[in-house]
Design goal:
6 helices
Amino acid sequence: MKDHEKAMAALLSSDTQTEAAKKAGITERTLRNYLADPAFREEYQRRKRQLVSDATRQIQSSYKSAIKALREIVESDRASEGGKISAARALLEYGQKFTETNEIMVAVEELENQVLK
């Protein structure tokens, strides 16, 4: 694997640039030089966005199960009152956030459609 590819892989799997340089077997200065290259930086940003997109899809695929689990706690005769309250609070808070986010997304789509007309 070329040094550029090693550096790219290390950057995508490390918490810091120092850690990434060590993983890639290069100096921090070399890594900074790679990041100064527009083509390298653009590819790094593209791959980083892809990682975030993939992680988001994985999280989204768990929404239904998470909501079901919280509802079961709220409706359970065996759950403690504190557990029920925590689950209910989570459902309300996340429900509100999802509602607001969805409304914003719909508004943005409507504005985009108006601009594109």
